[in-house]
Amino acid sequence: MAQDNAAFCGVPEGVPTGVPAEAKPPPPPPQAPKRRPWGAGGGAVARKRQRYVEKDGKCNVQHGNVRETYRYLTDIFTTLVDLKWRFSLLIFILAYALTWLFFGLIWWVIAYSRGDLEHLGDHTWTPCVNNLNGFVSAFLFSIETETTIGYGHRVITDTCPEGIVLLLLQAILGSMVNAFMVGCMFVKISQPNKRAETLVFSSHAVVSLRDDRLCLMFRVGDLRDSHIVEASIRAKLIQSKQTQEGEFIPLDQTDLSVGFETGDDRLFLVSPLIISHEIDERSPFWDVSRGQLERDDFEIVVILEGMVEATGMMCQVLSSYLADEVLWGHRFTPLLSLEEGFYEVDYGGFHHTVPVPTPACSARQLAAAAARRDAHLYWSIPSRLDEAAAAGGEGDPEMSPRESNGTLASPESR
What we know:
This protein has helices at 2-9, 70-74, 76-82, 85-114, 135-146, 161-189, 290-295, 363-392, 401-405; strands spanning 199-201, 205-210, 213-222, 228-242, 248-256, 266-267, 273-278, 299-308, 314-322, 326-328, 330-332, 336-338, 343-345, 353-355. By secondary structure, it is an alpha+beta fold.
């Protein structure tokens, strides 16, 4: 079928599209085609496409004019976890330092109001806290109380009921601060964001034939030996559009099928895999040809989700491909080789592609060409049977009507 597609879709004659891969001559070194951004008038312009999702997975969206900022405080735990590390460490330090200073000040006020600071050398006077002779010692006693570090030098006495109440209050609030801040830091440290650093996507996506069907493909791999459990992948087309009613929808999202109906979106990601989107009548690329692809303005966002085997936490990795990062007529080079007793993956060629003969027409035109070819073959079969009957079976009384004219005869005509 690839040879017939070449006749309808502009593949040069003599290109052996239907022969096995082993018989083809070695492909030339990978070379990305030159792409030019196009403007509305068709002329080349120097314009850079703004990404919706960066290649490293960061969403290039900023929220502005948010009036209900109090909503962030209602979920203070998630707000602290989402902060950058420098702000998280600053809040972590300030939470303890301010708590120690606050209670240290209260211990100093109690000692000052009771007159303990005026009877420092009086051994007949029973202070609230022994050996508390100023604000610095009160601050140190606050640290010892909240962190349960007791050196035996400064201790509270039983003649100070307000000090006993303050001691209980600081012990309870100190435990709450410890639980909250340590919990935030633990969740922030154990987040699986860094696990995404070892999940890689190919730098380009490609469009080429697979089983005589145009497919959009990209490659994904895992650099670690520990696997991603229940890994699944999705793809979305981000492109602005205008409805029939005239409504303009910026950055409209359309699903690209990568095997959800057949379960192929569930990945066994032990070695690099090529994810394929078949361009059929349900695909938004059904009417896109090579020339139109070079002029289009869109972005393909791919989302890989799974569970980290070591921690059991969910992990999500994102990447994207702009229109000029989709190579028409290319194929990924193989990476897997069989060694003695194991398979070896050569990640040095993870992003490499090679050009392959591919029709420049759209998938719709390719399907129409295949339908015309099948119809031509179907109607040519009776004519060939008629020619064979006229040449070798003319006047043969034993020849049935089926054999004489190449068509099916009814029982009554026999």
